[in-house]
Write the structure tokens for this entry.
Amino acid sequence: SGRPLTGYNAQNESLDRVRVDASGQVLTTNQGVAVADNQNSLRASLRGPTLLEDFILREKITHFDHERIPERVVHARGSAAHGFFECYQDLSDLTRASIFSEPGKRTPVFVRFSTVAGERGSADTVRDVRGFAVKFYTDAGNWDLVGNNIPVFFIQDAMKFPDLVHALKPEPHHAMPQASSAHDTFWDFVSLMPESTHMLMWIMSDRAIPRSYRMMQGFGVHTFRLVNAQQESVFCKFHWSPLAGTHSLMWDEAVKIAGADPDYHRRDLWESIEAGIYPEYELSLQIFTEEQAQQWSFDILDPTKLVPEELVPLRPVGRMVLNRNPDNFFAETEQVAFCTAHIVPGIDFTNDPLLQGRIHSYVDTQLTRLGGPNFHEIPINAPVSGVYNNQRDGMHRQAIPRGRVSYEPNSLAGGCPFQAGGAGFTSYPEHLAMADKLRGKPERFADHFTQARLFWQSQSQIEQHHIVSAYRFELSRVQTQAVRERVVSLLANVSMDLAQGVANGLGIRVPRAQQVVKPLEIAPEVSESPALSLFA
Ligand code: HEM
């Protein structure tokens, strides 16, 4: 009917329109014709050739031949669940986002957890980042918070993302899947990208082998903006904390489980929900101003940095409960299309150069993965608040817009929506000084080691031991000696204990400083951070 649905069950209700229960029904073709015999093809006599006219056989085989779609270029392996988000308080002083408008308000969500590097059928318990992507079906359109379980990222600029992914995916010549990130190309790349040092500390820690999807944190990673009805804005970092606590596997457990039950996390999520043990996460915000951010030594537009909680404490604002498994893996978990560009009035981007690239990437890849420009109509992707615009046609169009007008301005009656003005999404009118067009990075992007060191120091002795062991294991699988040495020399900027521990395990000396720590793309005016000169 196109009628907007409301309430926290709205998404579930909207899926009712397309749910099919075939039990007790006669088997039909796709044209609805009852099939008399689903066992035998139509043949010219019992021992003769099959007839081309057997449209029933041909339709069945043809559909089967086209069952597969491309897997996601990253985050191919994932598991998802439905649920709701419940807001604790009215946040309208900070944001006009409608999901935060009143205490107790519930918004339907669909959440997909994933690994990053592995293929669709790969094991769950590998050492990797985990995706934590949440689609909020709000009454003002879909908002996707496409996050990870680690609060920082490998690279500072979207320009490097294809390089990063090419380095961590199977090598192009033999395409051998990697059970973990350990192979020459990945370590070669990150050893030449000192900005990845902080993220690598998290990846080599127990955080990268979560015990369960129910027991891991989630982070929006980038700094976002919240904007209220008066067009006042604050910066915001998003954090999810699992009610069950944050827990990891031991490396030995992870390896054994990967062999014995590669679906371990998928099974755990599914079975918990079936058993009524609903995964629950609290959403907290770190809210800060431009003036605060200017005082800090790091840049809030740099996604390799977090905002320490000592500087900005977490403010809990709501909880999310996952209480329903998908009816169908392909229709929902596989076809869901998350996108950082999906924001709603009250939430806005910042100029984080990684985020800016992501805004382009997701829809672009989904045009291929989901076959054309109408994948927003796939039921799992459709907003419950309704879609009305002048876009038309294209492959697989489902909607049947009525009327003759699909353009604006127009003077002919019929079928055309009107723009919302101030009630709609408006970008925060950030003041931008006139500037030169350039490629480069601000100076405060240049310190790659201070937060990596803080992370190392925050770890208990046993956790530090796990980090050293993980580096030893991963680097022991790297065949190129120079790559191993470059990684260890970067670690010396974090902690000599760490570097020495890893070097001992590899039977090498902590190498002298190398000038690899000066990436080509840093603008000439950027000074080296003090940490870089540790070896001087
Ligand atoms: C998935 C691109 C950085 C989280 C994807 C996909 C692409 C992509 C193309 C596949 C989407 C699909 O086929 O539906 C990029 C680019 C990045 C980037 C270009 C940097 C420039 C990040 C970061 C995070 C992240 C920093 C976390 C904050 C995710 C998640 C998914 C994903 C969670 C899986 C979504 C799902 O479950 O379907 N990314 N990504 N990505 N990305 Fe990124």
Remarks:
- The two ends are 70 Å apart (CA to CA).
- Strands lie at 78-87, 106-115, 130-138, 141-148, 218-219, 224-227, 233-242, 280-288, 315-324, 347-348.
- Residues 72-75, 78, 112, 114, 131, 133, 146-148, 153, 158, 161, 221, 336-338, 354, 357-358, 361-362, 365-366, 369 surround protoporphyrin IX containing FE (CB under 6 Å).
